[in-house]
Automatic annotation (TrEMBL):
Keywords: Membrane, Transmembrane, Transmembrane helix, Transport. The chain crosses the membrane at residues 12-34, 54-73, 85-102, 108-130, 142-163, 175-194, 206-223, 229-253, 273-297, 317-337, 344-363, 369-389, 410-430, 442-466. The keyword Ubl conjugation does not apply. GO terms for cellular component: plasma membrane. PANTHER family: MAJOR FACILITATOR SUPERFAMILY MULTIDRUG TRANSPORTER MFSC. The keyword Transmembrane helix applies. This is Major Facilitator Superfamily protein. It is a multi-pass membrane protein. GO terms for molecular function: transmembrane transporter activity. InterPro entries: MFS, MFS_dom, MFS_trans_sf.
Amino acid sequence: MSVREQPPVQGRAAGPVLLVLALSLVVTTLSLLQSLVVPVLDRIAAQLDVSPSAAGWVLTANLLAAAVLTPVLGRLGDLKGERPVIIGILVTVAVGTVLAIATESLPLLLLARVLQGASYGLFPLSISVLRRELPERRLGMGMSVVSSTLGVGGVAGLVATGLLAGDDADYRRPFWIGLGITVVALVLAVRLLPRRPVTASGGVDWWGAAVLGAGLSLLLLFVSQGNAWGWSSAPTLGCLAGAVVVLSGWTVLQRRLAAPLVRPAMLADRRTIVPNVVGLLTGVAMFASFLAVLQYVQSPTGITGYGFDATVLEATVVYLLPGGVVGILLAPFAGSVVTRFGGLPTLLVGWTFGLAGFVLLTWFRSEPWAVIAAGLLTQVAVTVAYAALPSLVVQAVHEDETGVANAINSIARSVGQALGSAVAVTLIAAHLDPGTGLPRDVAFTLVGAVGIGAAVAILVAALLGLRADSRAARQRRPDPLTEVEEAVAGAGEWSPVSGIR
């Protein structure tokens, strides 16, 4: 159903600009809460008197909840309407954030992070709202601006932590920023999100959702806990094997259902495979960059021979904030480029910058300006990627699948972020200096090389997608002579010499 054919809005609708701004803040809630704990995991371990591996579950619990909840929430939005589901998610996230602020117990903090994991459903639902409400000429830019806030919000979360949790302050302080953003987003959602009659039909495939959640949880456990458990340990390999078996079984289950959670044909469609692969690799590159920059610039130069002795505040404000500011300024421009030239060409341009950024980080990081420039270039690539991905997904699926399709893409990015974190942590831990207990410089070269590999793979995926699109367009193009013959067929017998008899 096109925008012009939508059922009438019940009540006064917000204008396009106001709606995009409101949904941008809604999506910022997700990325902000996701990243603000990253710089203070060691402080959580110290202040709650738990091991660093136990504190790592603060990230893992959030990702596991996202894996289970995001597809269901996306499908519920398609079936029940986005507005009530978004409001319900924001209320749940607010409760979880209050619990995170109030608790002094790791189990309760993990419960809070599970509740906050519902926020991952906000992005696919926001894209669904935009697809229903915006005219086609504004849809591309609207989706790009809202999607770009995922990368910008991630930087904002790190900066907020640097500002509020510096000098060994209580790790709970940054959650106050998260609570404030969540409450403001909730107020805007209640006031501005339109009430539309639901047009989609069917139900939620709860069995499919449960099996998918179990398979993704096993996969995320393998990725996020492999370094702590040991990559060759029985639990790690068991999670990997279990993920392969469960996700394979889920695919078989979806093929046998009349109304599956996700159409198998949608997952196998080349038009959705490309953005999902790009989302995964973008997540890998983004978090590898974040962790490498944060640890590198905070390293004591006198002991390690590298680094800049930066505090947590300096690391986030000086080295990461410029990229976040550039992302905010770039988002509308990236949206217009996606609208005019398409998602795949935009990805090629954006990740050319990203490749240059990782080259700087890998081989030219000895000066502060080079690290800042690397952060700027990689943030440009992430912003452009997040601007292009929803457009590519929306073009590939039916309107009543917008929520669940973007939910799958969101999960791909989350898995990529977990994988990027795990790879960076593993490489750094594998290259510790026995004398100082700090990583050797080569560890950051290897992390940068991972980013280079991810950037190259994204460029290759975009080129392959463009080639396939060009081939498909040629196959659809009709023969000009056939068009002329059809046009005059009703007028009588046609002769190529004299025309119409």
